[in-house]
Amino acid sequence: MSRVETPDEASGAMIRTKDLRKVHHADGTDVHAIRGIDLVVRPGEFVAVMGPSGSGKSTVLHLLAGLVPATTGEIWLRGNRLSELSEADRAVLRRRHVGVVFQFFNLISNMTVADNVELPALLAGASPKQARTRREHLLEELGLSDRADTSPARLSGGQQQRVALARALANEPSLLLADEPTGNLDSTNTRDVVRLLESVHDQGQTILLVTHDARVASAADRVISLFDGMIVDDADIRPAYDSKNTIGSILDL
Amino acid sequence: MRSVLLALLAKESAHGYELKQALEQTFGSAYPSPNIGQVYVTLGRLEKDGLVRGEDVTQSNRPNKRVYDLTPAGREAVAEWLDAPSDGPRLRSEFFVKLTLAPLAGAADRMTLINRQRRHCLNLMRGLTEPGHPEERGNRVATLLVEGARLHLQADLEWLERCQEALT
């Protein structure tokens, strides 16, 4: 009977939330950051979350990553109800199945870039050779091959951000959660990140990211718009016209 | 189209089909493949206005072609066109009018209009990043145009968020 209470096992959802709410208490007042979110993300989906600042985008991501507890409501990741797991079990779930990139990168400054990226794969049980091959591939894709032996402290913000993304993908997680993964990047680096996300998406990984960058969002299958702690739109993305037509219509001589 | 053809002719004289090809090569896929009829009609009007001069060149085993050259007045027109300031940014004013009037007309609510417009912008953006776009093909002029279109769409989306905060 108790199994019936985890419907996501039957539905096969990667992420599922039920009436998720988060209230912050600040200076004696309650701030309702998230006001009832019901969300289902299926395996292999690429979902972007957009919305003005203060709409609750980052809070949703932190809740899904298990970084902060929900005030009320439930989250299931791969059929695991987060509130039922111990802290240790949540850590195991993250290490094995979830890659996370936050706006603060948390790179380890007394390790090289290469070691930072390889670490999660090694912790999850990959062989040193597998971890190195994966790291070389990711740094190459992100234009950072020549920085492998550097300390992250010597990198620019944009470079650190890409290393953090490489680290999150090192373990080939079934779910990638990312908060503004191109927030510090110029146009060329944004393009490299979008291409990498598209390629991991093509390999079947599930992606949920928060972004204000329309280029990143438009690479997703689906864009969820948050406003005032609630979902106000949930739309599939498809090219407005065939690509030739769209590009041809840019310039109107 | 008039100014574009004049500018191309400032470099060298050409016939209509050569101008069409020059347009395609310069702007790549960012330019909607020009209609040859439109090129000929525009050249005819420019000639009537005294900005270009056409001359028929006989070809041995093909029909004659008409080669165009800039007149001094045409050269002056190109210089004026290049020197004049171009239009500033333009808002999607039709959307803004709809957004403003929607409650009066009693139709869709503003949130619905904003959501629909956001979807439209994102779908356009997706169209600009599909495989085979100019960025992939290495045409720098076309790549810059696509980049410009993306930045406009980004600004539109941020502005939609402002509308959402202020009006809903």
Written account of the structure:
- The complex is a heterodimer of chains A (253) and B (168).
- With 253 residues, chain A is an alpha/beta fold.
- Chain A has a domain at 43-67 and 86-235: Rossmann fold (3-Layer(aba) Sandwich), CATH 3.40.50.
- In chain A, 35% of the residues lie in helices and 26% in strands.
- A 6-stranded mixed beta sheet of chain A has the order 6-7-8-3-9-10, sandwiched between helices.
- In chain A, helix 4 (113-123) crosses helix 5 and helix 4 runs parallel beside helix 6.
- Chain A is globular, with a radius of gyration of 19 Å.
- Mean pLDDT of chain A is 88; it is low at 1-7.
- By secondary structure, chain B is mainly alpha-helical.
- Chain B has 2 domains: 2-83, Winged helix-like DNA-binding domain superfamily/Winged helix DNA-binding domain (Arc Repressor Mutant, subunit A, Orthogonal Bundle), CATH 1.10.10.10; 93-167.
- In chain B, helix 1 (2-11) packs across helix 4.
- The A-B interface holds A 50-52, 187, 191, 194, 212-215, 217-219, 223, 225, 227, 232-233, 235, 237-253 and B 1, 4, 23, 27, 29-34, 111, 115, 118-135, 142, 145-150, 153-154, 157-158, 161-162, 164-165, 168.
Key attributes of the depicted protein:
heterodimer; A: 253 residues; alpha/beta; Rossmann fold; four-stranded antiparallel beta sheet; 35% helix; disordered N terminus; B: 168 residues; mainly alpha; Arc Repressor Mutant, subunit A; 2 domains; three-stranded antiparallel beta sheet; 8 helices; 67% helix; elongated
